[in-house]
Description:
- This is Branched-chain amino acid ABC transporter permease.
- Helix content is 63%, strand content 0%.
- By secondary structure, the protein is mainly alpha-helical.
- α1 (8-21) crosses α2 (26-43) and α1 packs parallel to α3.
Amino acid sequence: FITPNMGWEMLLPIFAAVILGGIGSPYGAMVGGMIIGLSEEISTAFISTAYKPGVAFVIMIAVLLIKPRGLFGVK
């Protein structure tokens, strides 16, 4: 069935991937998506799967603190 709440689980990782790659950089968003996806899956070997969405959030915050425009952001 289709419900209004469908897709909310994917919103944070997608947003984190765009921020990680850099706003305005499609290739950066693809690289950011790969980094977020791989780090979420690898993190399940070390922490509980309940914290899997938090991994994307932590990576997004770290990138914003270190490089506010993202990895491939343009000025």
